[in-house]
Write a structure and sequence with these properties.
The complex is a heterodimer of chains A (about 240) and B (about 300). Chain A contains 5 helices and 16 strands. By secondary structure, chain A is of the alpha/beta class. In chain B, strands 3-15-14-9-8-7-6 form a 7-stranded parallel β-sheet. Chain B has a 4-stranded antiparallel β-sheet with strand order 4-5-13-10, with no helix packed on it. In chain B, strands 1-2 form a two-stranded antiparallel sheet. Classes of the chains: A alpha/beta (about 240), B alpha/beta (about 300). The complex binds flavin-adenine dinucleotide, flavin mononucleotide and FE2/S2 (inorganic) cluster.
Chain lengths: ~240, ~300
Amino acid sequence: MILTILENGPIAKDVWRMRLTRPAGEKGLPGRFLHIRVPGKYLRRPISIAWTGEDSWDIVYKTVGEGTRRMTALPKGARVDALGPLGNGFDPAKAGGAPLLLGGGVGVPPLLDLCRALLEKGVRPQAAFGFNTAADAILLADFRALGIEPLIATMDGSLGIRGFVTDAAKALSFDSFFACGPEPMLRSALRSFPQTGYLSLETRMACGIGACLGCTIETNEGPKRVCKDGPVFAREELRWSI
Amino acid sequence: MVDLTVSLSGWEIANPVIPASGTFGYGKEFSEYYDINCLGTFSFKGTTLEPRLGNPQPRIAETPCGMLNSVGLENPGARHVVEHELKEMGRWFRGRVIANISGFSVDDYVRAAELFDREDKVGLLEINISCPNVHGGGLAFGGNPKTAAEVTREVKAVAKKPVYMKLSPNTGDIPGIARACRDAGADGLSLINTIPGMRFDLRTRKPILANETGGLSGPAVFPVALRMVYEAARATELPIIGMGGVSSARDVVEMMLAGATAVEIGAANLVDPFACRKILSDLPIVLQELGVTRIRDLTRGGIS
Ligand SMILES: Cc1cc2nc3c(=O)[nH]c(=O)nc-3n(C[C@H](O)[C@H](O)[C@H](O)COP(=O)(O)OP(=O)(O)OC[C@H]3O[C@@H](n4cnc5c(N)ncnc54)[C@H](O)[C@@H]3O)c2cc1C
Ligand SMILES: Cc1cc2nc3c(=O)[nH]c(=O)nc-3n(C[C@H](O)[C@H](O)[C@H](O)COP(=O)(O)O)c2cc1C
Ligand code: FES
């Protein structure tokens, strides 16, 4: 699938947002990803869909290495070879009465698309996000535009509550949570909250379509591929000793 | 019209473009992208007698012009593959497939080979001897002529279908191992498997792969693979399935000139699910340009 870049620019420290054309079709579940070919790099880069517009997709990516740095050099109008949307996303139908969106760093983007999908179903989520410092905070205006005021925690206290988002979120009451972020945050969420939970995982990937078994993890239901059976898993599936 | 048919030990296939083991699963995922019946055949995920969970994460690392994998032969076991994957496969692939078999003892290989040899859906057995021999101090079967010959002889004793020995590049003696396999009765050879390598994470100062090392594949290994196929072709008359870094129709031609009868495509499928279909559609154009009317005439064409 060849997509055209509509916009590509920085939105926070080392974080960029890219808008791509979206081919006609159903919006589908949020939380899935595009597998993007980056010029000069051999393997594709998996990046979550942050927003599904009528005829566009937004992705939000952090420049952590050469591939994501090269993505910043792609200008408006450039064509991008992408596969997707791939994987099994967040199912808004499983939200229960009062869901919480729990995000950490560049784990926040797919929760924005999930927030949209929940609101379209008439479900109003709460949100709690953690960042290292205020300079890393992303997409807050986008959530506010949807009428959601996220609870913020930063490690240095430069924005919102000081400390871990999983501690800050203990003040909230909710029936289920949808989480995406670094693995320590996900583990802490499982420790802290007994509620129904769906978590989006990350592994290094090659094919992204379920063929190479490069991304397999052991679950309580046997081996599963993060790219095809995930990236979103129900907490009962995860075999993490937390 | 260009004739793309090739024959592997009497098994006629429509064209020599074959997805390589471990990069195509059992074909199902790719059939969601295109009708894989355009392929002559494909080699399914390396299967062992007993199920295997494979290695811990991370299993994938990128390299210049290629990738490392340490999947560790994750597979549901030979009986499961016979009862489920092979039975269901007819829904997305009509032809017969290559059964890629791995083992950790000679007996493992033999028993898995017996199971697959009975299956109509299987066209030939590709025996991966890059695996460590648990009774031989963990040295790979394919690392020396004696153990390579032993696996070949024992598998041949139970198999009616053609047996192709898949050689490891992790040896200084491809000709010696090729001849040992031939003398032990192999019907053909298949090479190369991945080349051991590693990468480090600069931040953690640790290897990226949990298994520390992994197998290198992709364009980075192409010249090495050509040299090894060439050596094997000069050492024996056996038909060879050549592979390692093949990514284009021109690479297919080059691999055949080095001695291959057919060509497997591995990592390229992981970068682009349409890779094999694209190579297949480019192939007649490239052959026409080169004035080739029958692709099989290219085999060994570069060997003086
Ligand atoms: C399903 C999924 C969704 C993701 N969504 C986002 C997102 O929305 N925004 C975002 O900023 N990042 C996201 N990531 C992480 C992102 O894929 C990596 O940060 C990116 O691949 C790094 O590439 P690089 O070339 O800059 O880094 P390098 O370290 O140079 O990459 C080298 C290799 O390692 C892989 N790799 C490195 N870090 C990761 C990682 N954390 N996860 C997976 N592969 C990695 C790369 O893909 C590449 O193959 C997601 C990962 C997955 C698996
Ligand atoms: C992810 C991955 C998994 C593989 N698994 C197997 C396997 O199970 N059995 C096997 O014989 N070879 C396996 N291989 C090796 C390939 O079949 C092939 O020999 C090798 O990758 C070289 O070809 P390429 O450079 O085109 O990938 C695997 C390769 C990759 C990349
Ligand atoms: S990345 Fe290949 S199976 Fe998931």
